Amino acid sequence: MSPYKVVITDFGDADHSLEAGVLHGSGLDINLVRLQTRIPEELISHVGDADALIVQWATINREVIEAMTSCKVISRYGIGVDMVDLQAAGEHGIPVANVPDFCIEEVSDSTIGFIYDLSRRTVFLDRLVRAGGWGQSLPTQLWPPPRLSGQTLGIVGLGNIGRAVARKAGSLGLQVLGYDPYLGPEQARDLGVELVDLDDLLRRSDFVTLHCPLNDETRGLIDAPQLARMKPTACLINMARGPVVVQAALYEALANRTITAAALDVLEQEPPDPDDPLLHLDNIIVTPHASSGSVAAVLQLRRDTAQNVVDALNGKLPRSIVNRQALGWT
């Protein structure tokens, strides 16, 4: 019997010894192929005979999926799977697996950090000092800030990360609102979250943080009308995916002070164009899609992503399959 061909399409770290250890340590005969491309057209010639794909950011579209004749699983480094055509994978009987408990602590901690930074204007004060502005007055829109305790946090998306944010926010003295059409009132009460619709959340919140997946329901969820519903003193945090927010509308809202500030770990285009006007505003914090990072999180991610492949090649179900409905599974 020929060895199983497992293709890593792309990953930020050049080393893949940990994944290789999990795969080869399984006792399976594995031929591990490492690529470094996100472009579907460049993948097709390499994946036709693959038994499994391990994917970070590569676009696995219908054409890539239809080129594969023996793929048994697509395993994603991470939680979100918006780079994979789930419908096409389901039609071809290919389960798509993720790591649903990856980076819960890291992203929720980063969210709380953004709330602190936005509330206390930390980054903006740092910029002022570095520009030689010690002693100068800050714009009245930014200073003095309101006291953090007693303000309201609105969480859009109460999955694992959103729930962790809700738990941590309670210790800050924040009132917590939540919007998630898939969460029941009893679950929300257990989290200490008042479940509301999106419009109510936007209208009442001092901080709005996004933790929803990117799909047809959430693409462009926050556009000009939604930003206009927010308080002029409110701040927006996006920890989900860039296209959940219409970036042009966010630029206008920040430039016109429709809202006070924003903190973004994700953008519509990654990496961004250096001339993107959003990056030149003085009331925004941008980090490079890095909130998931920690030594422990990355080690867990690499092991669990490879283990999904081992399980599938052994004829078992990976622990988390995101396209069960497309596969006809319950």
Helix content: 25-40%
Got a strand count? 12
Q: Work out the helix count.
A: 13
Please report the first level of CATH classification, the CATH class of the largest domain. Answer: Alpha Beta
What's the CATH topology label of the largest domain? Rossmann fold
What does the average pLDDT come to? Answer: 94
Quick one: overall form? elongated
Summed up, the domain count is 2
What percentage of amino acids are in beta strands? 5-15%
Largest sheet, strands/sense/barrel: 7 strands, parallel
Superfamily (CATH H level) name of the largest domain? NAD(P)-binding Rossmann-like Domain
The gyration radius over C-alpha positions equals 22 Å
Sheet with the most strands: spatial strand order: 8-7-6-9-10-11-12
CATH architectural grouping of the largest domain: 3-Layer(aba) Sandwich
> Low-confidence stretches at least 5 residues in length (pLDDT < 50)?
none
Which H/E pattern describes the elements?
Answer: EHEHEHEHEHHEHEHEHEHEHEEHH
Termini separation:
33 Å
Class computed from helices, strands and strand pairing: alpha/beta
Provide structural commentary.
- It is a single chain.
- This protein is of the alpha/beta class and 330 residues long.
- The chain has two domains: 4-101 and 295-327, NAD(P)-binding Rossmann-like Domain (Rossmann fold), CATH 3.40.50; 104-286, Rossmann fold (3-Layer(aba) Sandwich), CATH 3.40.50.
- It has 13 helices and twelve strands.
- The chain has helices at residues 17-24, 40-47, 62-67, 86-91, 104-120, 122-130, 160-170, 185-191, 198-204, 224-229, 247-255, 295-313, 324-327; strands at 4-8, 30-34, 52-55, 73-76, 96-97, 152-156, 175-179, 194-195, 207-210, 235-238, 261-264, 284-286.
- Strands 8-7-6-9-10-11-12 form a seven-stranded parallel β-sheet, sandwiched between helices. It has a five-stranded parallel β-sheet with strand order 2-1-3-4-5.
- Strand 3, helix 3 (62-67) and strand 4 form a beta-alpha-beta unit.
- Helix 1 packs parallel to helix 12 (295-313) and helix 5 packs across helix 7 (160-170).
- The longest helix is centred in the C-terminal third of the chain and has 19 residues, at 295-313.
- The mean pLDDT is 94.
